[in-house]
């Protein structure tokens, strides 16, 4: 396996690379490829993947059912001294449980929360929890004593940057007056609650009765149990935000060369800007390689006419798709915000299934 | 067989859900009026249709959780001054946001109503739904709400929504699949969850990006002097075989399969949508 060329963009002084993007663009592949590239060039890299394809797990030599940090064997990859790669698969539910166990003020509070139906629903199903837990997992990795470089794959963002906003949303929820209001033991409320809060409480009561949900009591319980952990959560959320804003963090938006994905990538970049975060690069995955010369085939005497015709029709189809791709990439080029690097990764023509495939993708990454 | 009144189109990101939903709505609207509803917050499917030109027989609709919550509150709290105050309150907002799945549930309830209206007006409704994982969470939420609310309005609604999802005349799911490992696996898992967990009565797979292998192994071997051409021919052959493997796996899982060709045009335009739409209509009639 060849050594990768020097990184096409400044990775050497980074400590964290975060890959963001919509579902289906290959965020996990790009994350794994970048991580492998960095490990081969001598860094100690931990990569967190979200929902990786079994083939990718195979490529990294990982056990699917294990959600702990597992070492990747780089013997065949010719890594420089000091280079190592470890990978883990995000399991949001387990991370959430660990978080509760760490911050619960007592064993009783911990058990109460873990058994709570609101918590169980929240941690299993509620959109946003996976995002928050990815962030929490990041902190766990970043605070490990032997952490050097972290590459983070993120859950697919339905709405731009659910992931990056997750710590703040959790803080807002936990720190809100709603929580104070709800955690006040039934009836005896202290403090200056506004009329609106009182009205809201009455409204919630009415809502509960009408809907038959009988949830107010449960939410109150949950919040009361949870509020003992507010300080711990607040500290984690603030630390996660700080990590994202660190100048040694590189945010990479992953896209593919399709009109819709390009538009989404640009929306992500704009949304990052609004959060005072900066996209370092947009990486376009699966860019089609240039097409070979058709004339060489046409002039060959060894190739039968029927095969020539097939080759030509295949080439014509690929040329049309290449043209469609060109239009999308031109649009991206034209709208690229200042200071955002544009990177292309070449399409392998197959799904990556080995370390060599990942290394090949990493080597193909280049400035547009 | 007539397709269900409402068809919920989902699949893994990148499999072409929005294009399938738009093409399906376009094709169905040739026979009777149709509604295309976007749940993906970006309006991708409606965007594709707009690019292809509007028709009177085809209405588009964007559904948002917030609007559904507001409509629901106005429905159960008829006094406008109170319902408005509830909705303005941040506290109320936080609690409904924390209420597991309430907004998602109201979205489902909206789909049930949409299917009811469609039956009355003899229309079809096509939903550009979220990607598989989120779509399953959405569909599962009725059961969750029924568990949380043992009686009352929400309980009755939850039971009605569960019946709706299980009724093949009113509700069906199209799983959009690309011939790739992860997409296929996701579709097979989703089909099982839909059938066994949710008792969905009508499920079909739309296998997208189907190509013929075109080249035989011997032909590729004959291209030894032209490695770049050989590589492309090999990729084409692999893609063709992946498509037939995926078709077999989907059929083995008991799914009706509608095959959609890889559209190799320089732009994904009206003609492309018409091509897919024609295939979808033909495929539906063969199920």
Write the SSE topology:
The complex is a heterodimer of chains A (368) and B (287).
Chain A lengths: L15 E5 L6 H14 L3 E6 L4 H7 L9 E3 L11 E6 L2 H12 L3 H9 L1 H8 L4 H14 L6 E5 L8 H14 L1 H7 L11 H17 L4 H12 L2 H16 L3 E8 L2 H16 L4 E9 L6 H6 L5 H31 L5 E6 L8 H10 L1 E2 L1
Parallel strand pairs in A: 1-5, 1-6, 2-4, 2-5, 6-7, 7-8
Antiparallel strand pairs in A: 3-4, 8-9
Chain B lengths: L5 E6 L5 H12 L5 E5 L5 H9 L5 E5 L2 H12 L3 H9 L1 H9 L3 H20 L2 E5 L3 H17 L4 H14 L4 E7 L3 H17 L5 E8 L6 H5 L5 H26 L3 E6 L8 H17 L1
Parallel strand pairs in B: 1-4, 1-5, 2-3, 2-4, 5-6, 6-7
Helix pairs in contact in B: 1-2, 1-12, 3-6, 6-7, 6-8, 7-8, 7-9
Task: Explain what this protein looks like in three dimensions.
Chain A has 368 residues and is α/β, with parallel strands linked by helices. Chain A has one domain: Rossmann fold (3-Layer(aba) Sandwich). The longest helix of chain A has 31 residues, at 305-335. Chain A is 52% helix and 14% strand. Chain A contains 15 helices and 9 strands. Chain A has a 9-stranded mixed β-sheet, with helices on both faces. Chain B has 287 residues and is an alpha/beta fold. Chain B has a domain at 6-66 and 105-211 and 255-286: P-loop containing nucleotide triphosphate hydrolases (Rossmann fold, 3-Layer(aba) Sandwich), CATH 3.40.50. Chain B is 58% helix and 15% strand. Chain B has a 7-stranded parallel β-sheet, sandwiched between helices. The longest helix of chain B has 26 residues, at 227-252. Chain B is elongated and about 80 Å long. The interface between A and B is large, with 69 and 69 residues.
How would you sum up this structure in a few lines?
Chain A is α/β, with parallel strands linked by helices and 368 residues long. Chain A is built from 15 helices and nine strands. Chain B has 287 residues and is of the alpha/beta class.
Give the CATH superfamily of chain A. P-loop containing nucleotide triphosphate hydrolases
Contiguous helical run count of chain A: 15
- Rg of chain B, alpha carbons: 21 Å
The secondary-structure class of chain A comes to alpha/beta
**How many domains make up the coordinates of chain A?**
1
Largest sheet of chain B: 7 strands, parallel
CATH-assigned fold name of chain A: Rossmann fold
- Quaternary structure type: heterodimer
Element-by-element helix/strand order of chain B: EHEHEHHHHEHHEHEHHEH
Sheet with the most strands, sense and barrel status of chain A:
9 strands, mixed
CATH fold topology of the domain at 6-66 and 105-211 and 255-286 in chain B: Rossmann fold
**Which CATH architecture of chain A would you pick?**
3-Layer(aba) Sandwich
Q: What share of residues of chain A is helical?
A: 40-55%
Average of pLDDT of chain B: 89
Strand content of chain A: 5-15%
Largest interface: A-B, 69 and 69 residues
The residue ranges of chain A in which pLDDT falls below 50 over 5 or more consecutive positions are 1-6, 185-193
Enumerate how many helices of chain B there are, as a single number.
12
Tell me the distance between the termini of chain B: 7 Å
Query: What CATH first level of the domain at 6-66 and 105-211 and 255-286 in chain B would be assigned?
Result: Alpha Beta
């Amino acid at each position: 396996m060849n050594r990768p060329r020097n990184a096409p963009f400044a990775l050497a002084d980074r400590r964290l690379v975060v890959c963001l993007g919509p579902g289906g663009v290959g965020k996990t592949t790009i994350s794994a490829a970048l991580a492998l590239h960095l490990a081969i060039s001598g860094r100690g890299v931990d990569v967190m993947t979200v929902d990786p394809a079994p083939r990718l797990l195979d490529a990294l030599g990982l056990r699917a059912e294990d959600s702990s940090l597992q070492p990747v064997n780089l013997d065949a990859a010719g890594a420089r001294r000091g280079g190592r790669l470890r990978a883990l698969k995000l399991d949001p539910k387990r991370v959430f449980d660990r978080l509760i166990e760490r911050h619960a003020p007592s064993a009783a509070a911990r058990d109460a929360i873990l058994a709570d139906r609101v918590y169980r629903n929240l941690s299993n199903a509620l959109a946003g929890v996976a995002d928050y837990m990815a962030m929490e997992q990041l902190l766990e990795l970043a605070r490990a004593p032997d952490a050097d470089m972290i590459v983070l794959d993120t859950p697919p963002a339905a709405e731009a940057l659910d992931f990056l906003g997750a710590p703040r949303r959790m803080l807002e929820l936990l720190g809100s007056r709603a929580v104070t209001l709800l955690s006040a033991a039934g009836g005896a409320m202290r403090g200056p609650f506004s009329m609106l809060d009182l009205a809201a409480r009455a409204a919630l009561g009415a809502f509960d009765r009408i809907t038959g949900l009988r949830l107010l009591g449960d939410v109150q319980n949950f919040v009361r149990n949870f509020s003992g952990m507010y300080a711990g959560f607040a500290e984690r959320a603030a630390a996660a935000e700080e990590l994202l804003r660190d100048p040694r963090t590189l945010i990479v938006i992953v896209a593919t060369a399709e009109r819709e994905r390009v538009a989404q990538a640009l929306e992500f970049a704009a949304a990052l800007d609004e959060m005072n975060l900066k996209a370092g690069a947009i990486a376009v995955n699966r860019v089609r390689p240039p097409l070979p010369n058709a004339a060489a085939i046409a002039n060959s005497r060894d190739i039968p006419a029927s095969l020539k015709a097939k080759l030509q029709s295949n080439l014509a189809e690929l040329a049309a798709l290449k043209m469609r791709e060109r239009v999308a990439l031109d649009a991206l080029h034209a709208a690229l915000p200042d200071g955002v690097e544009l990177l292309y990764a070449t399409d392998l023509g197959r799904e990556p299934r080995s370390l060599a495939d990942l290394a090949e993708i990493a080597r193909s990454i280049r400035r547009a | 067989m007539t397709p269900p009144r409402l068809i919920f189109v989902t699949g893994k990101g990148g499999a072409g859900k929005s294009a399938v939903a738009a093409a399906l709505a376009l094709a169905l609207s040739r026979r009777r009026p149709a509604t295309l509803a976007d749940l993906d917050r970006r309006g991708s499917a409606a965007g594709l249709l707009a690019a292809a030109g509007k028709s009177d027989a085809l209405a588009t609709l964007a559904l948002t959780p917030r609007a559904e919550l507001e409509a629901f509150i106005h429905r159960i709290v008829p006094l406008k001054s109170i319902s408005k105050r509830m909705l303005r309150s941040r506290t109320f907002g936080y609690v409904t946001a924390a209420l597991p799945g309430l907004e998602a549930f109201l979205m489902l309830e909206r789909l049930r109503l949409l299917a009811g209206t469609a039956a009355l007006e003899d229309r079809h409704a096509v939903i550009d739904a979220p990607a598989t994982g989120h779509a399953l969470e959405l569909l599962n939420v009725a059961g969750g709400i029924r568990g949380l609310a043992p009686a009352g309005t929400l309980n009755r609604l939850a039971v009605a929504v569960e019946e709706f999802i299980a009724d093949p005349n009113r509700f069906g799911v199209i799983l959009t699949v690309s011939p790739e490992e992860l997409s296929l696996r996701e579709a097979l898992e989703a089909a099982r969850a839909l059938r066994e967990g949710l008792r969905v009565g009508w499920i079909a797979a739309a296998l997208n990006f189907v190509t013929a292998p075109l080249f035989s192994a011997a032909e590729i071997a004959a291209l030894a002097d032209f490695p770049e051409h050989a590589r492309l021919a090999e990729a084409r052959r692999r893609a063709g075989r992946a498509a037939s493997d995926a078709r077999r796996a989907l059929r083995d899982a008991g799914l009706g399969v509608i095959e959609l060709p890889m559209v190799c045009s320089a732009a994904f335009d009206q003609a492309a949508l018409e091509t897919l739409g024609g295939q979808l209509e033909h495929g539906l009639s063969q199920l």
